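Lab channel / #folding
Pinned by the channel admin:
"Please post every new chain as: sequence first, then the structure tokens as a reply. Keep commentary short and put observations after the output so the thread stays searchable."

First post following the new format, from NK:
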Amino acid sequence: MSDNENLHGNAPDKSDVVLILIDVISDFEFEDGEKLFKNALPMAKNLAALKKKAKKAKIPVIYVNDNFGKWQSDFKKLLAHSLDEAVRGSKIVEMVAPDEDDYFVLKPKHSGFYSTTLEILLKHLQSKTLILTGVATDICVLFTANDAYLRDYKIVVPSDCVAANEKKASQDTLKFLERVLKADTRPSAEINFAELAKAV
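Reply from TO:
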């Protein structure tokens, strides 16, 4: 067993394709959080199924999550808080909670790339195709997709694995991602990880 395997468990050390979950670890206890939660709940079921398929295909899973302005927090504290049954988001977080061998990156702003280690991690994994999922479609998913496009990554945004406060806003953003960023927005059930890796 190599040193990297000891460090990362079963997490792949190199992969053309990665699955990124944006801001899904949340208590949803914020302004308009109830609206977002309502639309994110069915999305979370699809995302949980997609993640399971990714793990089976040995595709690395990266959680890119807002630190909610809490600079002394860490991902484990955020996860524990969001799993508390007293908070709205616990139902979603239970479905999409990370495994021990998943990667995580905390972000201070909308984009997963801005002032984070995401780009360094993706270079380490030698990834070329990013499957972007999570919330909100028209904010953090969009900003992360924009930055990914500028860095020449191929972008996949499964239409049933993202959500926003308003369904129309999510749909309009998906159309924008298709038209401007050349994103693949097919539903998650149609995603074939082996084909995506070959297409790189």
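NK: The chain has one domain: 3-199.
TO: also worth noting, The radius of gyration is 16 Å.
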